[in-house]
Write a structure and sequence with these properties.
233 residues, Arc Repressor Mutant, subunit A, 72% helix
Length: 233
């Protein structure tokens, strides 16, 4: 009796499904490639043909979750523009300000993994950065180029993707300050933090004040400032 050979894509999805269950149950540190292989009913050697390491598995799961996020999905479908660029930066600011206050603590755990990876061999961090760049880098650069063409921004250097990473790393550092139960640094006048970060980053990537005022004032909602206060209480 013949059986249909499982396609590589289907096998990959089954492995990811098993890995999600293992990570959810045991966390990153408590999960092994051996346990994932067992959950997927395959050999560890076959798992390694699809994913070279546990870090690669986790990074792929993170990328899938990002792609499934409705807010990000909406942004990725927009036409590149100054408005899209401002919305991207604002969304990133809000995400990183909320990392340490998520209801299921998953974002906080991932941030801790990123920190550990930077201090270790860097594998997990490199994989995550590659996924983030492939997902967001293109629309960020295209929107920045449109902003320059529209007279809303001045070009800075010849490598606009670097500007995306400067934004990302600034926000990553901001999130680290808030990671411990007692924050390492308590910003003064927390009600202003979101706006200050947005304006600082938008100016840093070249937007002029008129464009920032025009687009940011439409996008920042009064409730967003209140959410930052609640998180810091």
């Amino acid at each position: 009796m013949s059986t249909l050979r499982m396609t590589s894509d289907l096998r990959r999805q089954l492995i990811l499904g098993a890995a999600k269950r293992c990570f959810a149950r045991h966390g990153f540190a408590g999960t092994t490639t051996k346990s994932v292989a067992a959950a997927a009913a395959i050999s560890e050697a076959l798992l390694f043909k699809h994913f070279p390491s546990k870090a690669a598995l986790f990074a792929e799961i993170l990328a899938e979750e990002c792609e499934a996020d409705p807010v990000l999905a909406d942004l990725l479908e927009r036409e590149p523009s100054t408005a899209t660029l401002v919305e991207f930066v604002r969304t990133m600011v809000q995400h990183f300000l909320q990392v340490s206050n998520g209801p299921d603590k998953e974002d906080e755990q991932r941030l801790r993994l990123m920190v550990t990876s930077h201090l270790d061999d860097g594998e997990f961090a490199r994989l995550v950065y590659a996924k983030v760049e492939s997902l967001i880098g293109g629309i960020f650069v295209a929107s920045l180029e449109r902003a320059v063409a529209a007279g809303d921004a001045s070009p800075i250097g010849i490598a606009p993707l670097n500007l995306f990473w400067f934004v990302h790393h600034t926000l990553l550092s901001t999130a680290l300050m808030r990671l411990p139960a007692t924050p390492c640094l308590a910003y003064d006048n927390v009600i202003d933090v979101e706006r200050q970060l947005c304006e600082f980053l938008l100016r840093g990537i070249g937007l002029n004040q008129a464009a920032i005022a025009s687009h940011l004032d439409r996008q920042l909602k009064p409730a967003s400032a209140q959410s930052v206060i609640a998180e810091s209480a």
